[in-house]
Amino acid sequence: YLVGVGRADCTGPVAQVPLMGYANADQVGGGLLSRLYSRAFIVADPDTSKRVVFVSADIGMVSQRVRLEVLEQLQSKYGELYRQDNVILSGTHTHSGPGGYFQYTLFWITGKGLIRPALSSIVNGIVKSIDIAHENMKRGRLFINRGTVENSQINRSPFSYLENPESERSRYSSNTDKEMVVLKMEDEDGHELGLISWFAVHPVSMNNSNHLVNSDNVGYASYLFEQEKNKGMLPGEGSFVAAFASSNLGDVSPNTRGPFCVNTGESCDNPQSSCPVGGAAMCMAKGPGNDMFESTRIIGQNIYLKAKELYEKASQEVTGPLSSAHQWVNMSDVSVELNATHTVKTCKPALGHSFAAGTIDGVGAFNFTQGSVEGDPFWDQIRDQLLGEPSNETKACHRPKPILFSTGEMTWPHPWHPVIVDVQIAAIGSLAILAVPGEFTTMSGRRLREAVQSEFDSHGTPGMNVVIAGLCNVYTHYITTYEEYQVQRYEAASTIYGPHTLSAYIQLYRGLAQAIALNATQDLPRGPEPPLFNVTNLTLLPSLSAESAPANKKFGDVLEEVRQEYREREVAEVTFVGGNPRNSAENATEHNFLTVERYSNISSSWRVVLNDASWDTRFYWTKGSRGQSNVTIEWHIPAGTEPGVYRLRYFGHYKKSVPIFRTITVPFEGSSSAFRIT
């Protein structure tokens, strides 16, 4: 094959924009823990024009808007080379990245609308990562390996899982998929290029009290792998690219100590995830660490170490033809043949009451509980008044789900949920990547993989390695099994196309697999094209107005200085007169907010040792009154840091008023005093 890899920043605005994942309107960005990246991998057949592109981006999920804009840019750059059928865009599902990049109304509610700078950062970052991979294509080889990851996940809806038939459950040793699949890439001389790992776990080690943008546990795994392979480079630099991509993580949590009542400390591992005092709002899962930062590192390190071991031992070479199959499908209207006599249908999208309950990783509001198969007259009344009552047809179709939001019947100002959905498979020799538009639960993913595997087997391509890539192309929430759907915990209430959603997807992906196996992908109907709504920027974000510094101070001045001396494992901290970080995101595509610098006696100069992509630094922005704000930079000095003289620097932009009611953006910088590490 010809192989190319690329990585580009897609962080976007780190302040004031709501973070996407927990649907918690209070959880807005207030700084940066680690940068977000898009990682692109291109595999091409040197003899034909066939190509496959796989992108894993450090974002909550790929929205339809992101995908359509990326495809538009690729077409204008590369013509027919990169298309909807051979480009897979997957989100890692971090819950600590900026939101606001959706065109469907439901996601505007907690995301404060459509935020152009956030959307553009993601689209441009993805395209740039593909550009870099495209420019660096070279002859290379691919190897695949798989193994088991321990101590890194629990099933967060075990009571739903137990609804699946005992005969099916008995074939598996665990209620989560512990298998990691690793694809290793090197050039023909054996130089390492990169890897993709697929593993099913929610990147929710950072909980919904966090305000720092970061890529969570899987992002930390990428960071460790890339830091090791790109020796001597700053984070985010260097040619080796390591993607830790999402899979069927729907009911899988990294918070391995399980659910406890925040107020009393007792377990709340019950079908309603509810506490005796305070109800469901008090039931939260705990990670393995003492706090969310430590838990993120522990889970990330576990995943990294397993991937490293599988990568180093990978010897099974991937060879064979490339192909890709794609269709757009109206998921609100799929007829599924369950057997010769029985046909069922999917439904218009709708969310159930338990959607509002959230999960043990991030609880909802107003004390909704998981597992409600009854509506609540109080909330139903409010919904009927504000949003309109669901039609009888939709109610019947979704039964036993009590509908909270009948999103498929809500069209103001635009539809609230997608109905045109991508289904897609890309095959690289013996590896089949199923690009799925949402979060399949453990058992849903197993059924889908098995169905596709048997389809390949029965059409003359046995022995395929089938992997699920999650959160691809368009976000459609969750996909549970029919049995899990019946008990209506969060994942089931969020299975938006009704009880037969999984059966519909299995039927569709079988069709794609068959087309690939029979070399008939060109005969697949394209399906109805998704809409691109004419909305470019509609947001409730505060506007960026002129800023000021306190009396007798200027931007970048130090307000609270570092100490003169620190030891390893201590925290060096400095506070500056700051500017709104959104100014920087809107002004520079790859702005670096901070550096840690070490003084070199040999060259008598300062050398950058860390940037803001490092997991050891934290950048906090605090808004004050009268256009003033502060920035605090922390460096959590790791064990093994070289003794010497250091300083912390800050780089920002502020808005300045100029005549006739205009503002301009002005760059500035600041530096702490020098301090010694002993």
Automatic annotation (TrEMBL):
One of its GO terms (molecular function) is N-acylsphingosine amidohydrolase activity. The active site is at 253 (nucleophile). It comes from the Eukaryota. Zn(2+) binds at residues 93, 202, 439, 478. Signal peptide: none annotated. One of its GO terms (cellular component) is plasma membrane. Binds 1 zinc ion per subunit. Belongs to the neutral ceramidase family. PANTHER family: CERAMIDASE, NEUTRAL CERAMIDASE. This is Neutral ceramidase. The gene is Asah2.
